[in-house]
Backbone:
């Protein structure tokens, strides 16, 4: 039975090897859980649309509101190329400003939110309802420069911040026109249907702001407002040297809250809902989360206010040297004018990524299963979908724009 | 921040004020031009001249030549579309010597600030209202009063608001706000609120009509103080003259007020730096305006600086008086309508028309005489009587006024035959309608004038008929005639000012008021004198004719 005595360790080793083989996916599922944590939000890029709708010197505080949010959003990582800033009037260079080129948010000139590197995309009279809706829906004339476009896709988390004078169901633009809550809700629905956002956070600081989000009906929308219907949002403090009120209360406390957030913060939306209670704000802030699919307690502030770049780890490799066939057989000479993306990482098995994908990607995944051939002499796209934009199922490519 | 927190600037201002304490002989035009230029303003002058229709004995002027000096502080970053005006009338003597100093001090301070969005015009006008009229006419390219002036070389855009300063001493105890302007026009109430707000903020005592506010509104004394203040405002507004240099701005839709410094016997005194701070604050607020002041009331009466009576409250009072007239007219119409045989409803025919038309024409001719003759006939009067021109004018006016009382007697000598019962009713109907329309229009333009006239004329119009006791009614009518109303108002005004006067003084004041009224009309376009002489007096004469109807 000498063989039996060395059979047992051998059996153990074999068993161990089998177990190893079976448990081979275990390191994959570690990555899986890590990756699932990384991609729990499902977004890959962040955009912000910050709008101040009122002009005139005595509406200084609305410009200061918008610039404070701009400041926070930039500080947390969203670059100017991903921010559409619309200011209806120029307070920094207003003739009445005793400190030109500054816009203060705290009295005694403690904090200048205008700074050195503010990029205003829509200024003065360009801030109109039509321009705002066109920015949101993407229906801009071809001549519009990139800085004035919201180039979001179905994996973008967008922050939309509106401030100005409003009423029950409307927001006043520039003393001459209004946008209604119905128009806004329809614009968001257009955005949803065109897959222009993954999740959208809508913040509004006006009188009776809660009326503006009453009519939303598209999924993945979360909304916050500074006051309920029938209440006025009040301003915070005047500065006696400048002579106007500097900020509105809700945004003032929002700014204070955001100053404590850093890119690695784990603060969630539930804390944001608590900003500016009635004792400080004199109005009752409201919020709406019924259209949002995730639990607000698991939504990080930086999901919307910051731009946290995510990296996906995969073990698959893709060979980039194989020639690819262009799928359009009818007109092989057709050129594609839209930006084309090549992805470095091919997709791995979907089981590695444990979160569910939004349905939009599934529809475009059918066209991207085969790798197309390249046009002779033309650029080498990897995948060309219907609109010429690369969608590869189940993956978050590190996009490189050609 | 704030005016004259810099000790150097404070010292400079004090030096300036001490220099200005000496009486000025005329206006130091060259010195002012140099002083303003040294402060970095764009300085221009305007010369003007006017010969008054007759010498003004109150201010002792007849042929007026003068120069206005004004400096424009351009807004550093703004387009030159709007302007604010700070003016100080420069008079010989010590009545306004400190205001110019404060104006120059403010100019220097304002020059160093970044936040001006409107040009600021610092105006020093000579011969107060006449100079101001010349400047305003030159600025707006109008010529309504026949003055001759040189055109303005420098302009600052459309004027949004103006303040006029009158300071006679460098230490004051209170600031008085004067709002009443030409023809009873008032600036927007927001300007008064602005002044009051800054007075409270800086802690300066502020008055209106020279009376302090009281806190006890419910007590009888507080209430009577409020009534007195309001009555003073009513009387001042009814006179139709501008009570400060600001009064002429209002015609051009420029909100303006005058601020007068008063030095009386109080313990707590304020110096000019505080007044400067107040003016700086007011100007800063006016600078931040995006539109002209229009949100508050234009028609109001102030029982105190913190309370007002709006037109919605006081107009119904006038409406009730006018209703009396309309009811009386209705009564007459009904009486006329109940038919006497042979006559149509309303107008009688034949000689009846003449007997109605004649008093009308003669009354109006008397009115025209009252309007034109005093000035035209002053030379002849001076030749024949030992009076000065001013006295000649005034006494001629009074003579024509009194001569009108004899009219009915003369009219009936002209006319043959008798007037009918219907005749006087028709005449009265016409007179009442005429009066109602006249008083209504007057009340719309200048409520106080319309109301005071209505108070005295409506009872007369209501009860007068040929059948009331003649002598008594004649006495009552004379006592309630426009001239006597003026006389009584003068006495009431003096009482309210707590400076009661004797009968003789009152009479002299009455004469000077008449001369001032005629001069105001000729110099600035005040409408009170033509209104009274051409319209109200003939209307009263019509009623007088009815009383003596035969």
Residues:
């Amino acid at each position: 039975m000498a063989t039996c005595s060395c059979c047992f360790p051998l059996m153990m080793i074999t068993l161990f090897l089998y177990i190893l083989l079976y448990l081979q996916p275990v390191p994959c599922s570690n990555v899986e859980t890590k990756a699932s944590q990384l991609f729990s939000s499902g977004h890959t890029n962040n955009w912000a649309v910050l709008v101040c709708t009122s002009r005139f010197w005595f509406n200084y505080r609305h410009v200061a509101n918008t610039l404070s949010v701009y400041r926070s959003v930039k500080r947390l990582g969203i670059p100017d190329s991903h921010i559409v800033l619309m200011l209806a009037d120029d307070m920094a260079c207003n003739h009445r400003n005793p400190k030109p080129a500054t816009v203060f948010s705290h009295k005694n000139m403690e904090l200048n939110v205008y700074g050195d590197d503010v990029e205003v995309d829509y200024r003065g009279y360009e801030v109109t309802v039509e321009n705002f809706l066109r920015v949101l829906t993407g229906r801009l004339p071809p001549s519009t420069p990139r800085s004035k476009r919201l180039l979001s896709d179905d994996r973008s988390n967008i922050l939309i911040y509106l401030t100005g004078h409003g009423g029950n169901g409307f927001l006043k633009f520039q003393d001459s026109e209004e946008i209604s809550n119905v128009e806004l809700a329809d614009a968001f629905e257009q955005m949803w249907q065109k897959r222009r956002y993954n999740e959208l956070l809508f913040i509004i600081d006006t009188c009776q702001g809660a009326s503006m989000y009453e009519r939303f009906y598209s999924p993945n929308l979360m909304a916050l407002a500074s006051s309920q219907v029938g209440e006025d949002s009040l301003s915070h403090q005047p500065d006696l040297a400048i002579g106007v009120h500097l900020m509105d209360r809700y945004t003032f406390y929002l700014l204070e809250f955001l100053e404590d957030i850093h890119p690695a913060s784990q603060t969630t939306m539930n804390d944001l809902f608590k900003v500016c209670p009635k004792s400080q704000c004199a109005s009752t802030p409201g919020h709406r989360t019924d259209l949002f699919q995730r639990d607000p307690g698991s939504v990080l502030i930086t999901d919307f206010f910051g731009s946290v770049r995510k990296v996906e780890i995969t073990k698959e490799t893709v060979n980039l040297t194989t020639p690819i066939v262009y799928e359009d057989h009818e007109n092989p000479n057709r050129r594609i004018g839209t930006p084309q993306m090549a992805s470095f990482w091919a997709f791995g098995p979907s089981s590695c990524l444990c979160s569910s994908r939004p349905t939009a990607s599934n529809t475009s995944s059918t066209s991207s299963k085969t790798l197309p051939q390249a046009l002779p002499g033309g650029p080498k796209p990897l995948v060309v979908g219907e609109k010429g934009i690369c969608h590869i199922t189940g993956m978050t490519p590190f996009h490189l724009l050609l | 921040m704030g005016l004259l927190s810099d000790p150097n600037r404070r010292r400079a201002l004090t030096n300036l004020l001490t220099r200005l304490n000496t009486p000025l002989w005329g206006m130091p035009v060259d010195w002012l031009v140099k002083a303003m230029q040294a402060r970095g303003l764009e300085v221009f002058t305007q010369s003007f001249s006017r010969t008054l229709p007759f010498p003004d004995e109150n201010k002792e002027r007849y042929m007026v030549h003068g120069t206005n000096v004004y400096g424009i502080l351009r807004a550093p970053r703004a387009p030159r579309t709007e302007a604010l005006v700070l003016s100080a009338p420069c008079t010989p003597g010590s009545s306004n010597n400190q205001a110019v100093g404060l104006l120059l001090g403010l100019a220097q301070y304002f020059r160093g600030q970044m936040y001006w969005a409107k040009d600021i015009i610092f105006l020093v006008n000579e011969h107060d209202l006449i100079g101001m009229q010349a400047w305003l006419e030159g600025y707006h390219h109008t010529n309504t009063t026949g003055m001759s002036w040189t055109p303005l070389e420098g302009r600052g855009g459309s004027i949004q608001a103006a303040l006029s300063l009158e300071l006679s001493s460098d230490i004051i105890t209170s600031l008085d706000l004067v709002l009443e302007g030409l023809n009873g026009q008032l600036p927007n109430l927001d300007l008064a609120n602005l002044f009051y707000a800054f007075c409270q903020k800086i802690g300066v005592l502020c008055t209106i009509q020279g009376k302090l506010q009281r806190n006890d509104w419910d007590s009888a004394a507080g209430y009577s103080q409020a009534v007195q203040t309001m009555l003073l405002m009513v009387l001042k507004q009814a006179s139709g003259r501008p009570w400060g240099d600001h009064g002429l701005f209002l015609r051009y839709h420029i909100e303006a007020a005058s601020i007068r410094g008063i030095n009386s016997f109080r313990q707590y005194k304020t110096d000019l730096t505080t007044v400067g701070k107040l003016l700086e604050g007011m100007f800063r607020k006016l600078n931040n305006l995006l539109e002209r002041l229009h949100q508050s009331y234009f028609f109001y009466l102030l029982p105190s600086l913190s309370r007002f009576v709006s037109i919605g409250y006081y107009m119904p009072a006038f409406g009730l008086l006018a209703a009396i007239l309309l009811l009386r007219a209705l009564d007459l119409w009904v009486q006329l309508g109940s038919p006497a045989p042979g006559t149509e409803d309303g107008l009688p025919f034949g000689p009846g028309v003449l007997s109605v038309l004649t008093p009308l024409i003669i009354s109006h001719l008397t009115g025209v005489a009252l309007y034109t003759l005093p000035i035209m006939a002053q030379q002849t009067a001076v030749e024949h009587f030992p009076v000065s021109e001013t006295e000649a004018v005034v006494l001629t006016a009074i003579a024509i006024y009194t001569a009108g009382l004899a009219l009915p007697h003369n009219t009936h000598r002209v006319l043959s035959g008798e007037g009918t019962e219907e005749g006087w009713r028709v005449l009265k109907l016409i007179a009442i309608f005429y009066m109602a329309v006249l008083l209504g229009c007057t009340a719309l333009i200048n409520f106080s004038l319309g109301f005071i006239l209505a108070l005295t004329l409506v009872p007369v119009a209501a009860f007068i008929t040929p059948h009331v006791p003649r002598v008594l009614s004649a006495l009552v009518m004379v006592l309630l005639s426009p001239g006597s109303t003026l006389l009584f108002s003068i006495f009431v005004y003096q009482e309210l000012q707590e400076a009661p006067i004797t009968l003789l003084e009152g009479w002299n004041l009455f004469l000077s008021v008449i001369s001032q009224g005629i001069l105001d009309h000729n110099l600035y376009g005040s409408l009170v004198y033509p209104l009274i002489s051409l319209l109200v007096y003939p209307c009263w004469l019509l009623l007088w004719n009815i009383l003596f109807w035969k």
Observations:
- DSSP finds ten helices and twelve strands in chain A.
- Residues 334-402 of chain A have pLDDT under 50 and may be disordered.
- Residues 326-401 of chain A form one domain.
